[in-house]
Amino acid sequence: MLIQLKTKNPIASSEITDKKIYQQRRKFLKYSAYSLSTLTATSFMATAFASRTSRAKMAKVQASEWQVAKQEWTSYEDATSYNNYYEFGLGKDDPKANSQNFKPSPWSVTVEGEAEITGTFDLEDILSYQVLEERVYRFRCVEAWSMVIPWVGFSLAALLRRYQPTSKAKYVEFTTLYDPKQMPGQKRAVLDWPYVEGLRIDEAMHPLSLMVVGMYGEWLPNQNGAPLRLMVPWKYGFKNIKGIVKIRFTERQPKTTWNASAPNEYGFYANVNPKVDHPRWRQAKERRIGDPWYASKRKTLLFNGYAEEVAGLYSGMDLTKFF
Ligand code: MTE
Predict the structure, then answer these.
(1) How far apart are alpha carbons 145 and 187 in whole angstroms?
(2) What confidence tens digit (pLDDT) does each residue in 74-107 have?
(3) Which of 100, 93, 137 is nearest to 222 (CA)?
(4) Is residue 189 exposed (0-12), middle (13-18) or buried (19+ Cβ within 10 Å)?
(5) Does pLDDT of 270 surpass 80?
(6) SS3 category, 146
(7) Which residue, by CA, sits nearest to atom 21 of ligand 1?
C-alpha cells in the first residue's frame, strides 16, 4: 500500500483539492489499502519493478484510483510533456520525444565515499528495503513556473542511513547516468556531463527529502527521470537530479552542474526564495502550469511553502549570499 504523508504546511485545499474530491480520494485509498493488504508495499513494488507485466498491472490498479487526482493536481499530461532533461534535448517537449527507447531497467546505484558500506546495488534490492509513500509536493522551477505533483518514493534519509555515513560525510553528491548512445543530448557540450548535484548532509537527511520512483501512482516515465530521481521540494527544480546512478558521501561541498556552468546564476543551495531574483527570471511570482492563460501568476513562497519545516536548516545564514 502507499502511505500518504502530510507535512505541517500541506498544500492548501483551495490550491488543489475540493473537499468532496478529497474525501472521495481517501475512500479510494482505503479500498486500495484493503485490496493490497496481503502484499507489503515494498514486495509489491519490487516485484512489479522486476517485470514489465506486473509493472503494467500496478499501473492499472493505481489508475483506477487516480482519476479524481487529475482534477486536483497538475495534469499527468502536463507533468510528463513539459520537462527539463537536457540529456534528451533542450526543448520542453524533447525529453518525452527523445527518451522513449531509454532503458531504465535493469538499474544499479553505486555508493562511494565517506560511508562504512559502499558498493554497487541493484535498484530492485534497494527498493526491497524501502517503504514507498505518496507525497504531493509543490514543484518550482527557477524559470518561474510551477506544478503540483503526487510523487511516489521513499525517504532519502532511510536510504542513506543504510550505508552508515562516517562523521566526515558532510555532503552527498548525486550523479546521472552517462550514456550518450541512450541520451543523445550528451553528445553536445551544452553542460559538463554527467549531470551532478549535491546536498548538505542535513538537507539530505531532512524528512521531506524524497527519492522518487513514480508519479501519479505509476512508475516514473523516462522523461521525468526514470528509474530514480531526487525530490527536495523547497529547492528549485534543477536540484532534483534525474536518472541517478551514483551517490557519494563527501567531506567537501561537491561540484554541481548548473553552478559550475553559471555560478552567478545558480547557487549550490538553490532554495526557493521570492526575494532573490535570478538574472533572467524574477522570482517573486510563478506561473502554475495548467492555469488558464488569463489567470494571474501566483505568489512564490519562501522555501516553496516549506519554511516551517526547513528554515531551521539555514538559521544564521545570509540567504542572499548562499542562494
Ligand atoms: N536532471 C538531469 N540529469 N538533467 C537535467 O537536465 N533538469 C533539472 C531537473 N533534473 C535536469 C535534471 C531541471 S532544470 C528541472 S526544472 C527538473 O529536473 C525538471 O523535472 P521535470 O521534467 O520532471 O519537471
Answers:
(1) 28
(2) 999 999 999 999 999 999 999 999 999 999 999 9
(3) 100
(4) exposed
(5) yes
(6) strand
(7) 83
Residues 6+ apart with CB under 8 A from 202: 313
Mean per-residue pLDDT for 204-229?
97
CA of 31 to the centre of ligand 1 (A): 34
Compute φ and ψ for 109, nearest 5 degrees: -125, 130
Does ligand 1 come within 6 angstroms of the Cβ of 146? no
Q: What is the pLDDT of residues 99-153, one digit of tens each?
A: 999 999 999 999 999 999 999 999 999 999 999 999 999 999 999 999 999 999 9
Check pocket membership of 241 for ligand 1, CB cut-off 6 A.
yes
* 297 DSSP assignment: P
Ligand 1 centre distance from Cα of residue 93 (Å): 13
Cβ(86) – ligand 1 distance below 6 Å: yes
Residue 34, C-alpha cell as written in the block: 484493503
C-alpha cell at 246: 551514483
Place of cell 550505508: 163
- DSSP symbol at 286: E
> Nearest to residue 45, comparing CAs of 160, 202, 212?
212
Cβ atoms 70, 79 nearer than 8 A = no
**Which residues are CB-neighbours of 83 under 8 A, at least 6 positions away?**
92, 93, 94, 95, 96, 223, 224
Task: Please work out whether the CB of residue 84 comes within 6 Å of at least one atom of ligand 1.
Answer: yes
Q: Which region among 35-49, 187-201, 235-249, 280-294 has the lowest average model confidence (pLDDT)?
A: 35-49
Query: CA separation (Å) from 56 to 20, 34, 102, 211, 230?
Result: 30, 20, 17, 21, 23
Q: Which residue has the higher pLDDT, 28 or 121?
A: 121
Q: Judge if the beta carbon of residue 195 lies within 6 A of ligand 1.
A: yes
Task: List residues bridging with 3 in a β-sheet.
Answer: 133
Whether 238 is in the pocket of ligand 1, judged by its Cβ within 6 Å, is yes
